[in-house]
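User: I want to check something. If I give you two sequences, will you return the structure for each one separately, not as a complex?

Assistant: Yes, each is folded on its own. Here is the first sequence with its structure:
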Amino acid sequence: MPEPSSHLESPPSGRARRRIVRFLGVALALQILVPFTYYVRSDPYDERFAWRMFSAVRLHRCATTATETIDGREREIPLARTIHQAWANHLSRNRRDVVVAFLRRRCEEEGVTHVEVRNACTTPSGVPLAAQVYTRECATSDVSLPRALQVAP
C-alpha cells in the first residue's frame, strides 16, 4: 500500500493558517451580523435575513383584503385570482416592498384611481394588532404606508 503524502498529514502553518483563520472569522462575523440587522431596522415584517426561531411576527395570523376604486366605485380585488399565492402570502406578511409593488401594478390597470391593501393581524394569543393599511392614489402616485408596528408576541 502506498504511503500517504506528507503534505496531507500536517496542518497548514504560517501564512496559510492565518489566512484560513481570517476567512473563518469573517464568515462567522457575517453569519452573526447579517441576521442581526433585522433587529435594528424599522420594518418588523421584513424577516428575510432574521433568525426566525426568535420571531413573534412569523406566528401572527393576518386577514388580507385589497380594494380598488374604478369610476368612483370601490370593489374588492380577488387576490387568489389576481396574483400567485406566494405573492399573496407576502402581502399578508406585510412585506412593504411587495405591497408597494402590488399597489403600483394595480394603478396601471385601466380606470383605477385608488388602491388599498389592509391587513388585520392577531398575535398567537389572539390579541388584535393595529390594522396595517397601505394606499396609493394612482393619479399622483402618492403612497401611504402604516406606521411601524411595535411587534409583541
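And separately, the second sequence with its own structure:
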Amino acid sequence: MKNRVLPLLLGLLLPLTATAENSTRAAGYTIHHNAIPTATLTPAVATGYSITRSKYRGLLNVSVIKDVQGTTGQPVTAIVKANATNLLGKSRAISMREIREGKAVYYIGEFPIIDRETLTFELEVKPAGMKKPISASLNQQFFVD
C-alpha cells in the first residue's frame, strides 16, 4: 500500500523546486520544507504513514537534496531538528522521523495547531557527512475550518 500512496504523499508534501519560500539552498544542498494540516491528507495516506489525521494537527515535511550538476539532485539522509514558535514566543520541539521509499528520503513530524495560528519553524539540518548543520526557516499560518 505504501508504494501506491507515496506519489500522492510526495505530491501533497514536497514543494515545487521553484517555490523559493519552501526551500533553502546552502552548502551544496537544497532543503525543501513544508507544513500542512494533517486533515488535508487522504485517510489512506495518513494510515499508510501512521499520521494522525486531524484539523488540529500539523505535519512538517523536510527533504534534503544534494545538488548534482545536470540533474535534479540526489536525496540524502540527514539529522533533522525542528522547533516551532508561535507569535507569543511559545516554542516546542517537533520530533522528526525518517521515511524512505525507494531512493526518496524525507523527514516528517507532527505538532498541534489552533485556528489562525502562525508558526515559525526553525530547522537544523545536518546532511550525512557534513560537520555543521544548515539552518532553514519557514513561516506558516494555519486555519481550522
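Because they were folded independently, the notes below concern the second chain alone. The first helix runs from residue 2 to 13. The chain has one domain: 2-142.
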